[in-house]
Amino acid sequence: MSLVKSFCHILCQYIELGIITNYKSSLNTKDLYSFLCTLHDIMNQSDECFVIMAIYFERLISRHKFIVNSCNLIQILFIAGVAAVKMYDDFSYKNSYYAKVSGISQQDMNRLEENFLVMIDYRLMINEESYNKYHDFLSKFI
Asked: What is the pTM of this model?
């Protein structure tokens, strides 16, 4: 779970730098960490998925500056988590499960996933060098 804390720390830095825009104080660091832990549990994610999520998040904000805001941060983190699990863990649930636990319709779940993939230009593959670089970076915050 230490990578979860590290990823949360990075997200808080994005908020402080204004990369995540219009961030309201209603979701504080503790709440963000709690959400990420819940995400970890309900998706049955490996800890390594948070490295993958960080890479996907970086890909998103590098292509679409200021697209992440207080209104869509949770959805983006959720769908990045779904993509990470599907690509890198041995087991993932169907979208119907993810829709159910997130409280949205399966149609909306599918739309969110498709939009996310378009926004990161379908770049889901991560080479070993990139993974190690991000893992080392996140490990500095442990």
From this structure: 0.88
